Amino acid sequence: MGASAGALPLALCAAVAVAAAMLGWPAGRVSLTQASGFAAGLSLVLDFAYSGDPKLVGFWLPLEWVALLVLLYRVVRWESASRVGWVGGLVGSATVCLLLRVTLPMPGQGWRESAFGVFLGFFPAACVTGVGLYLRSLDGRRARAVTEALRDQRLEVARDLHDFVAHEVTGMVLETQAAQLDEGAPAETRELFARIEGAGLRALDSMDQTVRALRQVEGKGRVGRVERVERVETPPTRVYGLADLGELVERFSAMTRAETRWVTDDGLVGVLSREAGDSAYRVVLEALTNVRRHAPRAARVVVEVRRTADGSVEVTVADDGGGVPGGTRDGGGTGLAELAERVDALGGVLQAGPRGGGWRVGCVLPAVKGR
Question: Rounded to two decimals, what is the model's pTM?
């Protein structure tokens, strides 16, 4: 009868540890943290409080020891970062101290034997903890990879929206603005074009908001302060370069009343890499688009491509504002933020801001070595 009474707490403790290790949590209002803490705490109390026959321990101890190792693995692998430390430490302590239940009640056994028992229990607990941490790190890498893939998809969608859809809508707006310059057109036609222009500008504003939400730009403020994003760029459908800038400026000049000057140094074709040339073209395209959107009354626009003293290529687009102060241009900005990242990744610098009474966008791109 006494032996049965002495085995009861051992059996109860082992049963609690097995249940905590094998059952699915949360179970109702009981979480893995609560179940693990209760099982480990009960085991530790019994380790130091048990004074029965050590021979009874030999039947239940292996079962409880395996259950605690499984519970330790589950805690280290799946518990939240804010709880894994103290919950894992509690379960690990219960695992390594389990042999105290044998050494402390035995007559003539001292702390040296107890310390040796803890030492023996440490190695399997450390191995299980290491496996759990390794698999946990793999889960973290997998989660970060999925998050990065989703982020790259959002950036790609934002890039496509801006580079293709937004610029096509801008082209339609420019066509309607040019049509309104025909003084011989009926008033109803000019009013229709004005309504189309307004709808197109509202669509571009909505596009900017959508692109900004997709990109989730971290760097706020000046364009030059946008943080670098390390990723592999997907090449666009058509790659432009410095040789295409003349045609771009001519199209812009034909659609606006502004006096447009195109200034370039000789011998610049082939100086920039394929990616750098395309980025330079897109900087000019974005700058001219912003002139039409934010300074439609600009009277003078200058596009320059120069070779700097150190051999780099500097591309600038400047306007006089047409009476609109350069520091008051609101909206947009997502295109320049994206271009700043591209130029920065190529080893260049892009700057944009008010200058005089207008606005200036400029970038410096490194030339190909030997050119």
Answer: 0.48
